[in-house]
Amino acid sequence: xxxxxxxxxxxxxxxxxxxxxxxxxxxxxxxxxxxxxxxxxxxxxxxxxxxxxxxxxxxxxxxxxxxxxxxxxxxxxxxxxxxxxxxxxxx
Length: 91
What we know:
By secondary structure, this protein is mainly α. It contains three helices and no strands. It has helices spanning 5-10, 13-48, 65-82. The longest helix has 36 residues, at 13-48. The protein is elongated.
């Protein structure tokens, strides 16, 4: 009856270990290579499918005094309809 390292040698444990390490190394190398080439792929896709241009300016109608007054009136009507205590002083 063999025990210890002799069992690993008899069962070809060394070869299994080396082949497992090579498989993991190959998988990590492929993953690293893909990550390395990812910016190149993204540049190619960006030239094929350009991004949509969006404007980031704020429209002028958001800051008019009439809209602020209408918003205040709408808030007051909503508060009265729902019976909210917001803005009411209770003594």
